């Protein structure tokens, strides 16, 4: 009953704020205790920065599995799920958890708001086409809105590659929601904007650069740039500094779960070298 009342209130507030019928994703009663528990931990004084909160959030979600919802559901609207992920939903979830623990935010409601804020283009949740699946789309939109900062092009020796980001439209049959012609057309128009798109990156060997290792922080985000066309993400994950080593927590699509590359990011990059061009370096703003 309490959940139904909360849904009605959020619908009304969303309609008033946006003058539309787009609503926040709602956490189920079974997920609320885990979300509240993580947020409570993140409010501990030792997690005194957004980056530290993001890292702890990622650690709390280790072992979570694969989410096939966005491929198999006929609507595939943004939803709350802290048990199963895709690469992008994992990143958006850990950020939303971290941001919801700041100041005197209202826990679960703030989490839902932040999940939408970081997941959806312009922060507006209309339908599947609002979700940002390509890193370049996500970085450009959240960067423009002041949510994140990218350092890649500020680093001497950065490079760029050009590719077309059209994975969704080229794999229409893999997504049940794209059988809807209206949604498919909106997704296609978005991806057309990323044809021959310039993507900055740092060479893989820069992961051992002394200045980089000094400047990178716990909770920073590294996007490992795929070297084939269609999409720009091979992996996207969270950095943990440990002595002179960088661990990397991410959703591993091959393994189907959230894992930590504790053997070091340099070693991991060597293992996947033939699939990756380089990496992009990002930080969520406090």
Give the termini separation: 36 Å
Structural class: alpha+beta
Shape, please? globular
- Percent strand: 15-25%
CATH architecture of the largest domain: Orthogonal Bundle
Q: Using DSSP, what is the number of strands?
A: 10
* Gyration radius from CA atoms, angstroms: 18 Å
CATH superfamily of the largest domain: Putative xylanase like domain
| Helix share, percent | 25-40%
CATH topology of the largest domain: Putative xylanase fold
Count of the domains: 2
Give a nutshell description of this structure:
This protein is of the alpha+beta class. 38% of the residues lie in helices and 20% in strands.
Description:
The protein has 2 domains: 143 residues, Orthogonal Bundle (Putative xylanase fold), CATH 1.10.3670; 137 residues, putative xylanase like fold, CATH 2.30.260. By secondary structure, it is α+β, with helices and mostly antiparallel strands. Strands 3, 4, 5, 6, 7, 8, 9 and 10 form an 8-stranded antiparallel β-sheet that branches. It is globular. It contains 11 helices and 10 strands. 41% of the residues are buried.
Q: What's the layout of helices and strands?
A:
Layout (H helix, E strand, L loop, with lengths): L1 H17 L13 H11 L7 H11 L4 E2 L2 H4 L11 E2 L1 H14 L6 H13 L15 H10 L3 E3 L8 E5 L3 H4 L10 H12 L4 E7 L6 H6 L5 E6 L6 E10 L2 E8 L4 E4 L4 H7 L4 E9 L2
């Amino acid at each position: 009953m309490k959940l139904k009342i909360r849904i009605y209130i959020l619908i009304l507030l969303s309609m008033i704020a946006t003058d539309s019928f787009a609503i926040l994703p709602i956490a189920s009663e079974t997920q609320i205790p885990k979300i509240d528990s993580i947020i409570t931990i993140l409010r501990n004084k030792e997690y005194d920065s957004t980056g530290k909160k993001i890292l702890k959030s990622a650690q709390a979600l280790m072992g979570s599995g694969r989410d096939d919802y966005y491929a198999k559901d006929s609507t595939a609207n943004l939803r709350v799920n802290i048990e199963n992920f895709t690469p992008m939903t994992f990143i958006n979830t850990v950020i939303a958890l971290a941001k919801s623990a700041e100041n005197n935010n209202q826990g679960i409601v703030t989490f839902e708001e932040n999940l939408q804020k970081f997941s959806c283009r312009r922060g507006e949740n209309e339908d599947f086409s609002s979700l940002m699946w390509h890193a370049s789309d996500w970085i450009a939109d959240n960067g423009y809105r002041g949510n994140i900062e990218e350092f890649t092009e500020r680093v001497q020796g950065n490079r760029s590659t050009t590719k077309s980001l059209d994975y969704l439209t080229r794999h229409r049959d893999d997504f049940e929601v794209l059988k809807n012609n209206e949604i498919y057309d909106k997704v296609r128009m978005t991806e057309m904007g990323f044809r021959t798109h310039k993507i900055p990156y740092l060479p893989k060997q820069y992961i051992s650069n002394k200045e980089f290792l000094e400047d990178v922080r716990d909770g920073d985000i590294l996007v490992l740039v795929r070297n084939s066309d269609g999409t720009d993400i091979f992996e996207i994950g969270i950095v943990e500094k440990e002595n002179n080593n960088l661990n990397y927590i991410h959703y591993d699509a091959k393994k189907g779960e959230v894992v930590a590359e504790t053997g070091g990011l340099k070693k991991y990059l060597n293992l996947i070298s033939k699939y990756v061009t380089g990496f992009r370096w990002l930080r969520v703003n406090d």
